[in-house]
Design a protein that fits this description.
Elements lengths: L4 H21 L5 H6 L17 E5 L6 E6 L5 E8 L5 E10 L5 E7 L2 E6 L5 E9 L3 E10 L4 E10 L4 H12 L8 H9 L7 H31 L2 H14 L1 H13 L3 E4 L18
Parallel strand pairs: 1-10
Antiparallel strand pairs: 1-2, 2-3, 3-4, 4-5, 5-6, 6-7, 7-8, 8-9
Amino acid sequence: MALNPFRRGAAREWFVALCAYALLVAPFGCQLQDMLLDNGTQGSPVDLDTTSTGLFLNDDANSKLLMGGRGGPGHALFVYGTRDAAGNPREIESLQLDTAEGGSAFIIFEDGYPVHARGLDGSYVNITYNEVSTKRLAGVVELYDASTGTLTTYPVDIDLQQTAAQVSELIRTLTGEEFVTPDLSLAEAKLLGQSRLIGLRALLFAVPLVALVGVAVVVLGQVLAAVLEFVAETIKATIQVTLLAALSPLYILTDLLNDLLITIEFVPMTAVFEFIPSEPFSDAT
């Protein structure tokens, strides 16, 4: 689903402002000068192999694979998108999660908004936005239940002034499920807390990722709430199971990301991953 030029401009204006704010509020202080002199981690990665954990920034400036990550349980994250002329991330287009058990799930974004989320069982949420502004989104959601093969549609209206923490609490109240949403200031503090080893360029990779996950929580969380509010009580429990299955990548991602931000390296992806999946795509019609 492509946004028209006006809506694309509103989307980018909102997301760029979010990332810019995240960078400016970080407690850089006198560390900023040190980071500006550093392109990333100082020296070569030490003792990295295909079992290493952390967030790994792809040193191939021509690759659409921007970052990869691996958590303690063995779950892997792959971040795809476009780059600017300097090789820094310009726009994140998709996030793929491969579990230690061999499952795969992903979220696809257009202009900073999630448009497709597919869970580990194949259930998915596909969103078509009819109205886009810096304050709200309105559109139609297709919910596919992989267990029955049924596809249903629902109207949604999303308030972009809600915070990820507020929406996370709403999801917990509605479903009993909860996750730790990524905190931009906390993430930056973790990065800066690693002394001067993390440079400004690393922040230019990591901060948009954290911000984008926050966007996904705000949008997909309200999608879940809107659908549950729309359906009849008699089928609400069944629909909730399908929604949680479709949004499983969001739950895995928020848990994984909070751990991955502890360790960041610029490395060749083949140094830390035996297998790198192709960029995910939506085959929803």
